[in-house]
């Protein structure tokens, strides 16, 4: 064969290889999940009364939810969806790479002991799941950063009231709040917003697997505490 023929073949093979590499890169970019914000590395207290910094989860994919234990409807469902995800993560052998975090936005009532009993009643595996409470101002700042809406609704003798007033001793309260679960990557960045109690297991697991497979980006993470404004 003429030398020019083999040169042409070689160039053709190089072009095919280059095109394949470009396609792989574009496919990876197309599958990449958006980056919303970096979760602040703030201190909380876990269900055993130990200090737990959110930065402790760096290096793992995190499934993050916010609840309160007196919630009569949405919060038990959020916890149930997260429990289903925990079971599927374990079934796929990913428990050492995925961590679950539940944070209360009712720290006045949700003490470590209350959170521990709540989790135990729902058969939570604490191996890779922490239930956190903490300083009310820290929790308020976190809800604001994550775009979680909360509003207390006081009830006296079964009647909702704007404020408890002089009857505060007889009042209880519920909390209206956003229904959401967050997926956080190994760098502590929020990468997906799931519809909380309405989260579908297959869709959530597909996103978790993507984050597990991702290599840490070399780019500088977003500033901590930049408020999330996306909502369902």
What does this structure look like?
The protein has 232 residues and is an alpha+beta fold. It is 35% helix and 23% strand. It has five helices and eleven strands; from the N terminus they run H-E-E-E-E-H-E-H-E-H-E-E-E-E-E-H. A six-stranded mixed β-sheet has the order 1-11-10-4-5-6, sandwiched between helices. It has a three-stranded antiparallel β-sheet with strand order 8-7-9, with no helix packed on it. Strands 2-3 form a two-stranded antiparallel sheet. Strand 2 (43-45) and strand 3 form a beta hairpin. Mean pLDDT is 85; it is low at 15-30 and 218-227.
What is shown here, in short?
With 232 residues, the chain is of the alpha+beta class.
| Beta strand count | 11
Q: Characterize the main sheet.
A: 6 strands, mixed
Number of helices: 5
Helix content: 25-40%
> Rg, please?
23 Å
Class from secondary-structure proportions: alpha+beta
**Helix/strand order, N-terminal first:** HEEEEHEHEHEEEEEH
Q: Outline the low-pLDDT stretches.
A: 15-30, 218-227
Oligomeric state, counting identical vs distinct chains? single chain
Which range does the strand content fall in? Answer: 15-25%
Globally, the shape reads globular
Largest beta sheet: what is the strand line-up? 1-11-10-4-5-6
Taking all residues together, what is the mean pLDDT?
A: 85
Gap between N and C termini: 65 Å
Layout of strands and helices, then pairs:
Blueprint: H1 3-31, E1 37-38, E2 43-45, E3 51-53, E4 61-67, H2 74-91, E5 98-104, H3 112-121, E6 129-132, H4 136-146, E7 150-156, E8 159-161, E9 171-177, E10 181-184, E11 189-194, H5 201-213
Parallel strand pairs: 4-5, 5-6
Antiparallel strand pairs: 1-11, 2-3, 4-10, 7-8, 7-9, 10-11
């Amino acid at each position: 064969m003429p030398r020019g023929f083999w040169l042409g073949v070689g160039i053709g093979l190089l072009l095919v290889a280059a095109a394949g590499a470009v396609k792989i890169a574009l496919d990876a970019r197309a599958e990449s999940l958006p980056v919303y914000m970096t979760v602040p590395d703030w201190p909380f207290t876990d269900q055993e009364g130990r200090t737990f910094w959110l930065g402790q989860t760096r290096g793992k994919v995190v499934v993050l939810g916010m609840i309160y234990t007196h919630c009569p409807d949405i919060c038990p469902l959020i916890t149930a969806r997260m429990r289903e995800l925990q079971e599927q993560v374990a079934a796929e052998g990913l428990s050492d790479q995925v961590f679950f975090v539940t944070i209360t936005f009712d720290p006045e009532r949700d003490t470590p002991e209350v959170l521990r009993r709540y989790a135990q009643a729902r058969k939570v595996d604490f191996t890779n799941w922490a239930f956190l409470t903490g300083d009310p101002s820290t929790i308020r700042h976190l809800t604001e950063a994550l775009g979680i809406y909360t509003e207390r609704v006081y009830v006296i003798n079964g009647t909702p009231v704007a404020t408890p007033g002089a009857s505060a001793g007889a009042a209880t309260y519920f909390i209206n709040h956003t229904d959401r679960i967050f997926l956080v990557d190994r760098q502590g960045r929020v990468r997906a917003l799931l519809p909380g109690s309405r989260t579908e297991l297959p869709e959530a697991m597909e996103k978790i697997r993507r984050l597990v497979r991702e290599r840490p980006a070399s780019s500088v993470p977003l500033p901590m505490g930049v408020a999330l404004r996306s909502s369902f």
